[in-house]
Amino acid sequence: MKNIAIISASVRNGRNSHRVALYFKNYLIDNKISTAKILDLKDYNFPIFEERLRLIPKPSAHMLAFAKEVETADGIIIVTPEYNGGYPASLKNVIDLLYAEWKRKPIAIATVSAGAFAGSQVITSLQFSLWKIGALVVPAMFPVATVEKTFDENGTPNDLEGTNKRANIFIKELTWWMEAKQKMEI
Prior knowledge:
By secondary structure, the chain is of the alpha/beta class. Helix content is 42%, strand content 20%. It has one domain: Rossmann fold. A 5-stranded parallel beta sheet has the order 2-1-3-4-5, with helices on both faces. The radius of gyration is 16 Å and the shape is globular.
């Protein structure tokens, strides 16, 4: 079975984007698509970026564990909120911390906002950062508007059928890229 890591990017108090990370974990497991683990950046509490992991003389156990999770994942879903038109510093921090671990890694992006634009303003800058380090950013997106009204705190969407339909398309695109990458490595 494939292994998908879900990065919950917000470390903010009272965050709502984590609801979408919880939804994807449940969706992947309940539908027997893959194993799924949430890499919650709030739990990692990384220091501000000083250097790439490979150049840090004594990296923390958290840094090494995070790097291993990214490296061993067959694919990644990044769930990120939009803050003032950009993605959170916590996410930029871990993107810059790693390098080889992101190379040719299939990554799908779910953008989240409290407003009506569903995080659409964040996508271009995040895609660009990931492309620059060689990640395989899949073309399917999963925008979530008014997250606090559409998902409860346990990750259950108000419109389960409609959300699952959108998630199915999103996940199929990610798994296609995961399978394509695997075939290229043979």
